[in-house]
Amino acid sequence: MSKPALQWIAGFMHTARSGNMTRAAEQLNVTVSALSHQMRRLEERMGKRLMARGPRGIELTSDGQNLFLQLEPHYQAIEQLLNPHAGSQADRLTLSALASMANAWLLPKLGDFVRQHTDIQFNLDSSARMVDFDKELQIDAGIRFGAGSWHGLQSHFLFNEWISPAASPALIKQLGPIKLDQLHKYPLN
Question: Which residue ranges make up each domain of the chain?
């Protein structure tokens, strides 16, 4: 039986951390196809399904999560040895946020944060999936819309969001004045 190549482990760790095979392939400077083949070989070698493609990217199976948790501290130690100037985990902040939230609210503020905290490496995980902080140890915090009552998590109110309908003048001309309490009758396409 052949030994697993170290690049399989790197591929697995980057894919598990990002939850996205395209992003992981970019980080590793390989094609998505090559990374996909590596992950298939690793799964064949281990005789276990480690990840599954979901609607929002790659999701680890329970076997994949167990492998990730076992490898993560060792992989971080290797990364630190090979790149000692990259900073420790304590010097990194990884935040998960919806792309719309990141673009509209977070990114305009990010420049000031980076200038004020040059010692912190900031990473953004732009994703719609809810983070499982018990499993996704590389993500420190998340910003989400909602009432803030997520079981087992501490939340802080940031701001109110205001949503207002908009319509083209041609639609208004065709349908006539649209009343807010009648919006549910109109198609959203």
Answer: 6-85, 87-143
